[in-house]
Amino acid sequence: MKAVTDDKQPAPADAPIEQQLYAIRQKIQPRSVHGVFANWRIALVLLTQALYYGLPWLQWDSRQAVLFDLAARKFYIFGLVFWPQDFVYLTGLLILSALALFLFTAVAGRLWCGYACPQTVYTEIFMWVENWLEGDHLARRKLDKSPWNANKLRRRGLKHLAWMLIALWTGFTFVGYFTPIQTLAAEVASMSLGPWETFWILFYGFATWGNAGFMREQVCKYMCPYARFQSVMFDSDTLTVTYDSSIGEPRGPRSKKTDYKAAGLGTCVDCEVCVQVCPTGIDIRNGLQYECIGCAACIDGCDQIMDKMGYPRGLIRYTTENVVKGNYPDSSILKHVLRPRTVIYTVLLAIISGAFVWSLATRVPLRVDVVRDRVALSKETDEGMIENVYRLQLINKDGRPHRYTISAQGIAGLQVVAAAREIAAAPLQTVDIPVSLIADPVELKGRSIEVTFTVQAIDDPRIRQAVATKFFNR
């Protein structure tokens, strides 16, 4: 790179060279578009936000249906209650999500980014508000360039007010997944919010307002790691948003009455609608780029122009690299969906999903922990027997009360001494029970013998937990 002075004359050879590390951002005002894929985006926005905003308000057995109560260390998901010891289920869920993402990406590219990613969804919502209050893309560009006056102040003020209300409601709902949302709403109404609830509502609201209102495509380009490694999951049979240069080139403007074939032109009229509707500002005609989020807005925009010109649709479409190269026609795309990569993802997803569901279905709603007495490993009773003292912690993970019995195995004639023959535990209650094991020294073979505590629910034989521990001889 040659250093240049202000008067366009070459600078001395030893002059310092200044180079920008990133391109200066050009604000993007996307053009509105209508079509099949735009309708899909609207449907996914409505569906995802109905779930996000609605789930915290659902009730289940007189409690919030979905609640991650960090203070009580209980996580409620409808009829299931998870504890910190059930962290393995979260691990399984994350693995399933990752595999599903890999599978969808291998089959049809960035479907998640284009239709369900929170960044895409909230940017879409904020753009609806912007289009409603400031006008279409041309009106917004004109407003950007106009000097500040009463009209611009009013429009921008209303837009940011609407954005802030949406962002704060989003932050409030987010906190409502961790603090009972009805209690949270009462605290907001009475101005008695705690410091942590206040912080997270404002923080999440500010992040939503900033990301969806200002940063937008910058999050996808520079902050999201998925854009950088997505190509690893693509192959020549992956469906992506593609400009078919074989039918579009050579491009050029022409009237509707022009016979483009006789004029030696392709079907691309170089209208740049595909660029104008792109939320990341790329030109899809330059090929697949990492900035493309697969939203297919350019497909809808191009199809509208093709309809007006009387040309066949499909200049920009979901297709594969092999179709564009002529290796097989569009009609054979479905035959190439099943290939080694997708089969492996599908098999892994099916196996792990089955194991996850089976684990949930056979999950025992009881946890037993055994802690030995720290004062003495063992002691001799007045009758000459050997006694070990333990503390059993029973966690009733069920939404119903249960009564339990305690037994022990591992030594012949082993006696269990507890405060009560039956232990009662209310729903989701933790009960600590001191328990002694007494054994005849004649039956003790060695210094340390393995024994097993078994806790059994009286009213449900399926609820049973066995825990191994050690019995020490004197």
Q: What does the model show?
A:
This protein is of the alpha+beta class and 474 residues long. It has 15 helices and 16 strands. The strands form 5 sheets. Strands 8, 9, 10, 12 and 14 form a 5-stranded antiparallel sheet that branches. The protein has a 4-stranded antiparallel sheet with strand order 13-11-15-16, with no helix packed on it. A hairpin with a 2-residue loop joins strand 4 and strand 5. Helix 2 packs antiparallel against helix 15 and helix 6 packs across helix 8.
Shape: elongated
**Class by alpha and beta content:** alpha+beta
Number of domains: 2
Give the N-to-C terminal Cα separation: 84 Å
Percentage of residues in helical conformation: 25-40%
Helix segment tally:
15
- Give the strand content: 15-25%
